[in-house]
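Researcher: Please translate sequence to structure tokens.
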Amino acid sequence: MKPMDLSHSVVLITGGARGIGLATAQAFATAGATVYTGDLDTTLPPGAPDASPQPRGSAIAGSISGPWPLDVTSHDSFARIVDNVIADTGRIDILVNNAGVMPLGHFLEEPDELSRTTLDVNLWGLIHGLRLVLPHMIAQGNGHVVNLASMAGKIPFPGMAVYNASKYAAVGLTAAVRRELRGTGVTVSAVLPSAVRTSLSSGVRLGGLLPTVDAADVAAAILRTCHTRQAEVAVPRWLAAWKVLDGLTPSSLMTLGRRLAGDDRGLTADATARAAYTDRVATFTHSREA
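Model: Translation complete:
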């Protein structure tokens, strides 16, 4: 597959208001792409009417339009932003399915509605994006989708069981859809970061033996897949050896290593430091249940 020409690409990024999404939007804009971002939590651009989430005529090469209102759990909400970007530019060359949530705590204590939110955002958000954008990419004979997964899609972590489940599903979904697209000129990649210094990890003890990266590191990996069309990319890259290591190392030794690395940090997060993020996810969850 030939590399994507970022300077002439139209890019749509979900969860683009902050963190990895914002860093990725900035990286694409720096590369000369025409970037649109959507997010559930958003301050509309100056002059944009609150009731009309239509990114029309507002993005040019090397700039970012948005974040525009987008609830990735809603097919209709996702369809609106896709339709309007295509109406504005005629195409979407790159989709970055970045939006995600990461509740922490004991599995048996997590409310069902919060688990549903996690699965709907982290898995159904990808499904909606793929089903809405891929037909346009296939019709134009070229395109690339990046699904933000996680090393939690390869490594189980206590304290984030449903998040683990959603990311394992994201990795499998990406791999299967990628195979279905063979010969179309369209590719799908999964990017799997370790712990990232964003609001998702607020209140969690970072560092030590567990590698930690910045949002800009993940953004760089996302852009790299547009050139390589690689199926999976770990961030940092050396974590890609996990599958081999896990298969060759006795389980008792792996368990000890994971304990030394502090893989149970999801159970010991500082609730006060994490409160703003937890409240934001809870507000969205309650709005869906109302």
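Researcher: Any highlights?
Model: The chain has a mean pLDDT of 87.
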